[in-house]
Amino acid sequence: MLAGADWWHTVPVPRLNIPGVKMSDGPNGARGASFAEQTAGIALPCETALAATFNTKLVHAAGSLLAREAKDRGAVALLAPTINIQRSPLGGRSFESFTEDPILSGLLATAYINGLQENGVSAVLKHYVANDIEHERTAVSSEVSERALREVYLRPFQIAVADSNPLAIMSSYNRVNGEHVSESKELLDGVLRKQWGWDGLVMSDWFGTYSVDTAIKAGQDLEMPGPAKWRTPYLVEHLLAARKISERDIDACVRNVLVWAQRTARMSPETVYGDDIEVTNDRPDDRVFLRELGAKSNVLLKNDNKALPLTNVKRVAVVGPRALDKTCFGGGSAQLNCSYVVTVLDGIKQVAPEGVSIEYSLGTPSHKMLPYLDGIVRDDGIAGADMRLYTSLAPNSPVVHHYRREASHVLLNDGVPDSLQGTNWFAVMSGTWTAPITGLYEFSLAVCGRAKLFVDGELVVDNWDVLQTPGETFFGHGTSEEFGQLAVVEGREYAIRAEFSNIPGVMKDAPDVGQICNFGLRIGGFPVVDKDAAIEAAVALAKDVDAVVVAVGLSPDWESESYDRASLALPQRTDELVTRVAAANPRTVVAVQSGSAVSMPWVNDVAAVVQAWYGGNASGLALADVLFGNVNPSGRLPITFPVREEDIAAHGNFRSANGKVLYSEDLAVGYKWFLERKLTPLFPFGHGLSYSTFGYSDVEVSRVDETTIDYSVAVTNTGDVAGSHSVQVYLSSPVSNLAHPVRHLAGIATTAALAPGASERVTIKVTRRELAHWDDLIHSWAIENGKWKVFVSDDALSAEQLVHEFEVRGRHEWAGL
Asked: What is the pLDDT of residue 813?
């Protein structure tokens, strides 16, 4: 009971009718119980996109949808949400977290968790705590002050525990101030259980357990995945005999596992005791909701001369590498098999008014790795590839297992048959590929193991007998790509055959690790492109149309678990493409698909910019709805977009150095750093434009008690287009000897869609939680006495509309929630 039964289940006890609890990744969808044979499902917009709605009701509805999806996969626990703070947009998993602000993160996490758990699925809140980079993530120590730890990094967890009571929390890989969180009795027992009174389950991140006795005594209840690597019967019995742990220690962990199993079984008995068959349910209402959610997450960053919406146009060019890409999430645990994906180009074609011609030009590639080889068909005629596992590649070897893949890649860490476990085995991925062009085509192989790629029997790529180059693939365990080229003819069919083995290859500058636990194969393919000619073709098209939409951004290769981004820059020659197209057409609109901030050296040259994030299944439709005015954009930035990397608070203290990363910015994370240093960002936290205008009036203040105040404000649509608006309330602390941020977010509220001239009154409650700071002398929360200032604003940096001052008197100190 101290460890999982396998990758996704706890250990059942049939004689006592105790079920094994099934879990699933992840924050934007429910993948199910296999990386290798993924059941198709819904992909929501990434968490930064959800946060950009500034709408807790929408996020609650998203959580409810995810609960249905989890149960469709037979799971009653979702490993989500992720609420780590975005110290830097370069963090590999920034797209997977909500925001740089702890209050907003806590509010959104609460809504998400309540949506899940009210519908019978346990949240597994992660990653507790200060797990904010991927570089050396299992070893790095986040060196952070006590006050910043409490006010910034623990605060979202505290809010979520207080307002939604997540049934489980996942401990993070990293250390905090020298101690692994999974072994920290102070964080797991002292803070979570004793101070906050939380009584849920603490599980490890996958392979995030580093000891037996220390982790058990600290309060890490469950080692994942299973079977146990540390908590084997032998080791546990040995430590019991040595009195390194006691039966009481074990009982405490087992009790929490059993209580969690009981809670999930009571919430969803039909799923827990069901047949564990995973299904795909493509519900029409869900499609409508995903499109609405995606559109409301889009942020209109710039709109000069009413370039948007796209009206009075007959010809629109869609240019750029992301227009045809099927990316709808970042990389790593967030990835799943999407039941459908609408690309930017397809979305624009579907939404464009009748009579509007849509034309496409690539412009420039932007991939980090060659895209997955598309256009392969399996033996059964369905798009994808067959993958057969063998004990040998000798002729007539029997097939041990046959996977029917829907893509030209596979991760087999949880999909190897029992009969092959612990042995050397082989696999063949095959299919029929139809060439999309005539000319040179480039192929690639990245592996965790070794592989060769044959096209029509000709060896094109060898990643088997070569000296392999370590890469970032397969959670950092795989190789870099090896490449090969072949002349192909458009429309002709080619036999694709990739031979693969789990036998580790010989890796450059890497020790011989023997048998590996992740096995993966990735086949890439893309035409060999004359980049100069491609840009010239895009520019020529831009000159000849009424408007241009340039689709740019990142992908799971650039933003992913296991590694961080190297810079804010868009890939390859993207910036050059945008600049050239903008010079050719004054009505150039840039749509950016990314999970966090990117640099925009061309921002003054283009007419409009839309931050479209990773929008999930309906990303193309959602963006098109905004571009053509079917939806009035209402999204707000949940993160600051800096002009340059040097302006980021964590710049210079972001990567691990000798096993440590110094949180030297202390409390000044995100917009608070820009306020403190008087820096001008590219776009501030909270920024977002509309096709209409809104005004505030008739502020009402109701003081409930000494530290609780309700602020009510009337929001009026003063423009001529219906739309909704998000109200942001910020606080400034009294002047004192203690340093505080210049101001900080206290709360948000979003109106319904308001017709032109219509008004709605919204209320934001300010409580002691929003007023409190952590006093590291007395190790408790406290509130500054004196005059507080309250601002209502459209973003963090222009919060100059003072609406109220109030004074706090008396002693206000506490240590719990």
From this structure: 96
Q: Give, in order, the Cα–Cα distances in Å from 381 to each of 338, 375, 377, 386, 433.
A: 19, 11, 6, 11, 11
Q: What average pLDDT does range 545-569 have in this prediction? A: 97
Beta strand spans in 119-278 (E): 122-128, 141-143, 168-171, 175-176, 179-180, 201-203
80 plus 220 within the same structural domain:
yes
Q: ω into residue 489 within 30 of 0, thus cis?
A: no
Q: How far apart are CA 589 and CA 591, in angstroms?
A: 7
Give per-residue pLDDT as tens, 269-310: 999 999 999 999 999 999 999 999 999 999 999 999 999 999
pLDDT in tens, 427-460: 999 999 999 999 999 999 999 999 999 999 999 9
With 0.85 as the threshold, say if the pTM is over it: yes
CATH code: domain of residue 396: 2.60.120.260
pLDDT (mean) for 347-376:
97
CA distances from 293 to 575, 603, 614, 721, 795 (A): 29, 26, 12, 20, 21
Burial class (CB in 10 A: 0-12, 13-18, 19+), 77: buried
CB distance 367 to 557 below 8 Å: yes
Model confidence over 608-649: pLDDT tens digits? 999 999 999 999 999 999 999 999 999 999 999 999 999 999
Q: Give percent above pLDDT 70 in the chain.
A: 99
Cα 429 to the center of its chain, rounded Å: 29
CB 464 within 8 A of CB 450: yes
Token readout for 158 is 């505290």
DSSP 482: E
Sign of the dihedral through C-alpha 733, 735, 737, 742: positive
Q: What is the 3-state secondary structure (H, E, C) of 337-389?
A: CECCCCCHHHHHHHHCCCCCEEEEECCCCCCCCCCECCCEECCCCCECEEEEE
474 & 355 share domain: no
The closest of 275, 371, 316, 393 to 588, measured between CA atoms, is: 316
Pair 319, 580: CB distance under 8 Å: no
- Structure-block tokens of residue 716: 């009026």
- Same domain for 645 and 743? no
Which of the residues 72, 205, 625, 666 is marked catalytic? Answer: 205
CA angle 755, 759, 764 (to 5 degrees): 125
Report the run of H or E that residue 22 belongs to, with start and end. Answer: none
Fill in the amino acid letter for 714.
A
What pLDDT is attached to residue 510?
64
CA distance 729 to 39: 42
Please indicate, yes or no, whether residues 228 and 313 belong to a single structural domain of this protein: no
Q: Hey, what are 558's tokens?
A: 């650039």
Separation in Å, CA 813 to CA 135, 708, 773: 38, 15, 10
Structural contact between residues 69 and 290, judged by C-beta atoms closer than 8 angstroms: no
Q: Are residues 75 and 180 in the same domain?
A: yes
Q: What percent of the chain has pLDDT over 90?
A: 93
pLDDT of residue 514: 43
Question: Comparing C-alpha atoms, which of 404, 451, 406, 446 is closest to residue 426?
Answer: 451
What is the three-class DSSP state of 511?
Answer: coil
Q: How many CB atoms lie within 10 A of CB 266?
A: 10
**Whether residues 520 and 571 fall in one domain:** no
Give the count of domains, the chain. Answer: 4
User: How do 547-553 and 588-593 pair as beta strands?
Assistant: parallel
Q: Is 346 one of the annotated active-site residues of the chain?
A: no
- Name the amino acid, one letter, at 498: A
Q: Taking a C-beta distance cutoff of 8 angstroms, is the pair 149, 156 a contact?
A: no
What's the chain's average pLDDT? 96
Q: What is the CATH number of the domain that holds 133?
A: 3.20.20.300
Mean pLDDT on 222-241: 97
Let me know whether 461 and 331 are in one domain: no
